[in-house]
Amino acid sequence: MKEKAAQASFPRAISTMLGMMSSTQATDKEVRGMMRALPAMSAMMETFTLEPAIREVALPFMELQSSYLQNLSNAHKEGKKIAFENFNFPPAILYAMDIVPVSPEVISSLLSMGVPKGIFRFLDYTTGIGIPESMCTAQRGGVGVILSGLIEKPDMVLNMASGSCDTNSKMFDFVSEYLHIPFCNIDAPPYWDEDGEMMRYYQKEYRKLVAFLEEQTGNKLDEDKLRQCCTEAKKQDEYVAELYDLRRAVPNPVPAIFNLMMFGTRFMSSGTPQATKVMETMYEVAKERYKKGEGVLPREKARAGLVYLSHFTAGGEFWRWLEHNGISVLMEGLAILSHQHYNIDTSTVDTMLDSLAGQAHNMMMTKQIRGPLDYPGQWFEDIATLSKDLNLDCAIYLGTLGCKNTWGGIKVLMKMIEEELEIPTLIIHSDTWDDRVTPWPTIRDQLEEFISTVVVQ
Amino acid sequence: MELMEKLVEPAKTLSNPYVEGWREKGGKVIGYAGTYIPEEIIYAAGILPYRIGGREATKVTIADMYFGPVICNFVKCVLENAADGRFDFLDGAIITYECDHMRRIFDAWRRAAKDGNARLPAFFQYYGLPHSRSEHATELLMTETQRLIKEMEKHFGVEVTEEGLRNAIKVYNKTRQLLRKLYELREKDEVPVTGTEALGIVVTSTVMPKDEYNKQLEKLLDELGKRKGITGRPRLMIVGSVNDDIELVKLMEDLGAVVVADSLCYGARCFWNLVEENGDPLQTIVTRYWEHIPCPRMYGEYSRRYSFVRDIARSGKVDGVILENIRFCDLHGTDNTLYGRDLEADGIPTLRLERQYGPLADSGRLRTRVQAFLERIGG
Q1: What is the pLDDT of residues B180-214, one digit of tens each?
Q2: Residue B133, in any domain of the structure
Q3: Mutate which of B65, B74, B79, B107 to disrupt the A interface (most A C-beta within 10 Å)?
Q4: What pTM was estimated for this model as a whole?
Q5: Is B136–A371 a contact, with Cβ atoms under 8 angstroms apart?
Q6: Is residue B267 within 8 Å of residue B202, measured between CB atoms?
Q7: Is the Cα dihedral B359, B365, B369, B374 positive or negative?
Q8: Total of domains in chain B
Q9: Which residues of chain B does A408 touch, with a Cβ-Cβ cutoff of 8 Å?
Q10: Which of B99, B106, B137 shows the shortest C-beta gap to A166?
Q11: Is B216 contained in some domain?
Q12: Which residue among A60, A341, B38, B164 is least crowded, i.e. fewest CB within 10 A of its CB?
């Protein structure tokens, strides 16, 4: 009974907090007052609510997060199944089948940004039950929340990291075995192609997923619901493409924190009208700036590309600090390909499923790091395209210690970037979700030194 | 040289008299990594398949220039060996996506060669692998294997024929059957072969011509049938990350144990399953590699892996299982958590042992941990 109450109250508590923040139409003065009253959360509130243009997007974004958690909290009461899925799993298909998604990476990120000491105790919990501490913190945090009973046990495990990340996939494999929950592996093929043999392989994997979901829910996929979700996903993709185009402008009119809100929205809620609202607001805010010829920064000292992750602790100070220091963040690994328009075809069930498979096949991580660095459509080619298109001045790597795939290739990749794209690079040894590896102030110092001595001379 | 020595010594070094003899006769050698590359296709091309390993490396200075800090030392040692010229005898190499560490050798080795820090074999290929079994995954693997054969034929001016493949299947199945016999001897109450010797014999099977190997192993098995067996020692099984270093097993046995079984990729998992001799030979080869006792890289396959581990532990009458993983090897490290839970529930004591790969840098710690485990299981 106690456990049930905890399971319901944890996501609800965070949801309520986010709901309160999003529903407030507070003035700047009132926001500052709230920051003084809640010092532990002041950094996050500063990131999302002090700047009016950002606040305009942050409010629907927080509402969306609140609903995500509320749905999770109510799922079993409403007779819905919960699917444990990865961040790179576009959830539109789940919404079309009335399945509630929960992604450990989303939970880890929410806690890392919003709560002091973030996911530390949940990381320790997973280590305590025997999960190697070298596994990725992005999953360990969220898995710790679930295994410690703060969120209801999911009904199925869907792994879409297969082929791009072993540590992520292994965690999903583990959760399925540990909790005795049915498992579906959606495997990305070993190379990338847009419409050839590899894509056909992935389409078959996607059909396997749909059959699995039908089996688990006992419901057939409803064409009309699928079309509604695909229509929303299509609008979202169009906004993402438009936002990408706006980033090409000098000065850049798209704030760095929009990257986080963009990929966060897609990871949690692609295919829902709420997600479309966030994306639309984001686009309108940035377009308005562009029309006026305004940039986020009055003068860009440098245009930076983050070749993989950013840093999620310290209430999102990472993005604020970069902009405060004249750095525009044009590219982030998690949003790296979001400019692509996937052309979701809503004509028939088959075209919709193939389109969603295409979207998933192109998701960040799934696409770029599945094969050798210099193969077509892989990490280097994507960065090279974006670097030229967005006129980048430098490339920076931050990751997690769990990410063996990127740590296995990053030194070679950075050499390629320096030689072939002729821009300076920086590799920071840190962990996006765990400040105990390298505290944010140390990361900040390394960034400052790199920017001031290498990038801006 | 005694038969046992002949089959264990090559496991201690990278090059060996068999490889040298092969090359002196003008033979070509292709290195490969892991247990998913169908060796038979290389053999059928008249080329010696050679499994590349990390033994002999005593530093990872060059490897650290190309890999980040959280990469498995086995993989780093492989690259270091390439940098130190220990793989200069290779005419080709095939790197596969066995895990996120291993696959990046394909990028790192090429880059090290570009920087003048290693020699890259003239034939250097990547072999892509899916991660879950299905009809379309087998089809994809078949296409990938056919591509690899074409590249090999073009580069080396050879031909892989149906007859050649059928012959390769026979020779390789023979090796597997002989190794199964060796492992059956290890199940006896009086064990005629140590775990150190058994590992050496398996490692050697991956670095010498199979025809010659089969002849020698057959003779050795006859000898072992007459050898006085070991009794009265705690019987151990080893499960976990890749290990081509016989010193690790020796360390355990020097403490009074005898290692009688394993589930390792230089061990039972690499030879347990046979290739079906009827049917299209390429298809049956591909199917065998795809369906063999899975590495933890295959997702949704834990129950198959566990059944294998438990059955081998039981038939080996083991007193305890050592669940080892190389530092940063998440695939084995995570599976070991589940093995620990399930083996203990099945009444089999376990020891979790995270270790560093290399010339036993942390041998003191390992010795203490194993010694304590032996005390726990009454050794």
Answers
A1: 999 999 999 999 999 999 999 999 999 999 999 99
A2: yes
A3: B107
A4: 0.95
A5: no
A6: yes
A7: positive
A8: 1
A9: 67-68, 71, 75, 100-101, 103-104, 107-108
A10: B99
A11: no
A12: A341
